[in-house]
Amino acid sequence: MTTRPLPITKLPLALLFLMLFSTVTLATNSTERHRPQPQDAQRTLDTASPRVVTLYQGATDSAVALGITPVGVVESWLEKPMYHYLRAPLADVEQVGLETQPNLEKIAWLDPDLIVATRFRHQRVMPLLEKTAATVVAGKVYDFKASLMLIAEATDRRPTARALLERWDRRVADFRDKIRHASGSHWPQKAAVVRFKSDHVRIYSSGFAGSILDELGFEQPSSLDDQGWGIKLTSEENIPAINADVIFVLLEPDDPAIRQNYQRWTSHPLWQQLDAVANGRVFEVDAVNWIMGGGILAANAMLDDLYAHYGLEPSADGESMACASGSTAGMESDKC
Hints:
By secondary structure, the chain is of the alpha/beta class. It has helices at 13-30, 38-41, 57-65, 84-87, 104-109, 119-122, 126-132, 144-154, 158-183, 207-216, 256-266, 269-272, 275-278, 287-292, 296-309, 321-325; strands at residues 52-54, 72-73, 94-95, 114-118, 134-138, 191-196, 201-204, 230-233, 246-251, 282-286, 327-328, 331-332. Strands 3-2-1-4-5 form a 5-stranded parallel sheet, sandwiched between helices. It has a 5-stranded mixed sheet with strand order 8-7-6-9-10. InterPro entries: ABC_transptr_periplasmic_BD, Bact_iron-sidero_bind. Its main location: other.
């Protein structure tokens, strides 16, 4: 008796993915595949309600800001499974795994029109994503302006994106003007973005928060010159590297080990000698707003934090997006 092979249309979806991935892997070992850049991967969709799957946090934030409810999103880094500020507009949205390991079978099952991925996280599975749906690819995940325009171009929402960015520019100009006048000769200030972990401390020089602080006119501590993403400190003896005019401390309050490490470092005599500590300019800030959210909504929330920490009153052009409209992407604001 001869056993006939199962027709490919009857094969389990997971097996199909495995076969396809094996084929693509062989192909990429011998030839260079073209990876679409954001500027040449954009494809406008002829639908008012595109089925979008977002595979990194900034893309999810950007989609919501543009008035899109994705059909699938990846799990958040903190406040799992989804950041609090996005839970209302995304209450019934499907989870498609981790940002570092999305569930390809579930993505295919959602039958998306568009997938928003990032080169850094998803290059290995890009051939599978491209076979599932039109796929646009971000370069730097922390570049919230690029993420916003990437999705806007692909979904024909350019006017909305431009309006959001114009409002951001007005808020930046308003903040820069107010903090310069309020600080006088003490401006610009060197700002350190410090994240405490359970066994070390990180100082960020670039990324989401760093790029926004730079746009707002802050400067970096001297210790971060030519340090790439930043530096990692493992001993309290390195505390002088944190010295700055202002320190923004990123904490994960639900982790007792992180809180304990924070208390150990901040009780050290060297911590008390830092300029920011001596002048009362150490602010604990929300890690989701400052590094995790990654989109224009998070950027505006970070700017709201800065207005509040410096005791500045935004003008009509500088007020938060939520205050200006009553709500932002379905999120009620308690700051207005």
